[in-house]
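Annual report, structural modelling task.

Input specification for the zinc ion complex:
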Amino acid sequence: MSSPSTRMERVRGRDTAPEMVLRRALWSAGVRYRLQALHLPGTPDIVISSRKLAVFVHGCFWHRHEGCPRSTTPKTNRSFWEAKFAANVTRDERKRQELVDGGWTVFIAWECELGSEQDAAKVAASIVAWLRTS
Ligand SMILES: [Zn+2]
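The model returned the following structure:
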């Protein structure tokens, strides 16, 4: 039986549906990007190197999207899950800070904001707006 962390790694390494939908939206908005910059802290999912923009597509459950209905806590083994989630949030914040310290701008796209092509287009539009104005 695989531990939750092994399961998460497997999900993380795959091209998830929310990530794919955002990539398509960015591409059709004319944004050219690189994927999974392994040399960067936290391995951002989408990277626009020329502008030092790192985008993470975060699952609401694992990364604890605040106030999001998907950010539930399983009823059993509650303390295990709470410790696990706290570790995830701490790690996310540390990686984000490492990127910011390196001069990167970090953009978090949440899974629940990428439920459809239309939703993804909105997220892509805010990235495009940032690229235009920064
Ligand atoms: Zn969410």
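Residues 111 and 124 are 13 Å apart (CA to CA).
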